[in-house]
Amino acid sequence: MRTTPGSPRAWLRAHPLIGDSALALLITALSAATVVVNAAGAPTAGYGPTRSPDALSLVLITLTCAAVAPRRRWPLVLLCLAELPQVALAALDYDAGLTGLVSLILLYTVAAYRGLALSLVAAAVVSLSHLTSMLLGADTGGWGQQTFVVVVALTVWVVGRSIRLRRAYLAELVDRAERLERARESDTRAARAEERSRIARELHDVVAHHVSVMTVQAAAARKVLDTRPEAAKDALVAIEEMGRTAMREMRGIVGVLRTDGEAGERAPQPGMGDLPGLVDQMREAGLRAQLWVEGERQVLPPGIDLAAYRLVQEALTNSLRHAGPAARAWVTVRHDPGELLVRVEDDGTGVNGTSPRGPDDRQGHGLVGIRERVSLYGGILRIGPRQGGGFEVRARFPLKDSHT
């Protein structure tokens, strides 16, 4: 049962010593009243003749009931201490009043707030105290009353243990919910980091490709501006179109950041079907590029479709920038059963045209991003010198899962 914050019950739970002290005073008063009533000749619980109450008996009753006040701090210790005055009351043949409630309250407290071992010790202490009182000659009633006392004590112990187990179960549920919440937050952060990494790769591919082409076109326009103004005009038109295309693609990618991925995911992404247009762009920029598609075309998973396109785009961009002015490039796409092969080659020897390029000449951020893309889909990538001169980027994407 939940308690409303600010209610008297919630206040008492926040200040247990006050409530327990009030309970101790109540039991003391009721015990004293019971003793007085029994001494006046009106026994209420079937007790036999006892000594008349005096100051000693009232002190023993008060000491027994006082153990209830701090019961939540040292319940087992207080239980053991409370049994001593009760045994003394029985040994001196005094009426104990309602001090038996103290044993039950402390037994419940140990069972509800301590472990199983201590709760068993508490049950043993109560049993030993009751047996000692019987052996000292106190008239505690017949077997029926003794059976009732045992049943009540056992019920109190079981209720206390049940409440402790329920409390532990609820605490475990709360802890598990907190762990799940932390795990969800960690997964969310990881997903956001992965999304940022994906956006960074996309932005790099778009910017690197289009800016490289625009730079080459601008250089060509500058060279022929005076001698061939029409060719310079065509180059400027190509730069304008390339800039618009770059801005359109960048808006689609950056839209993910502004709308938590909703608009960006709806924006169409380029794929292998756009390779002819990409190759035409490279030809216009001055790279003599050709495209061959082998095998029966098949529908590719969106992720692999985009990754393969970006691989060709990055490889051609690097050929345009680094292969040299007279270089040629070949793009080969082969559709085989269960896999897609993509190969981009060029025969360039470098911008200076004097020395062959090593395998690490063009290992920039773009090709590192290509490695990440290919490995993400379980592909195999090779980047390095081409046999016979030039450079080669070759990737193999498995497509087994795409047919399931």
TrEMBL record:
CDD domains, alphabetized: HATPase_UhpB-NarQ-NarX-like
Positions of the Histidine kinase/HSP90-like ATPase domain: 303-401
Keywords from the named record: ATP-binding, Kinase, Membrane, Nucleotide-binding, Phosphoprotein, Transferase, Transmembrane, Transmembrane helix, Two-component regulatory system
Keyword Hydrolase listed: no
Stretches for region Disordered: 345-365
Top-level EC class: transferase
Pfam families: DUF7134 (PF23539), HATPase_c (PF02518), HisKA_3 (PF07730)
Domain of life of the source: Bacteria
Catalytic reaction equation(s): ATP + protein L-histidine = ADP + protein N-phospho-L-histidine
Regions that span the bilayer: 22-41, 89-109, 116-137, 143-160
E.C. code: 2.7.13.3
InterPro entries: DUF7134, HATPase_C_sf, HATPase_dom, Sensor_HK_TwoCompSys, Sig_transdc_His_kin_sub3_dim/P
GO MF: kinase activity
Protein known as: histidine kinase
Record organism: Sphaerisporangium rhizosphaerae
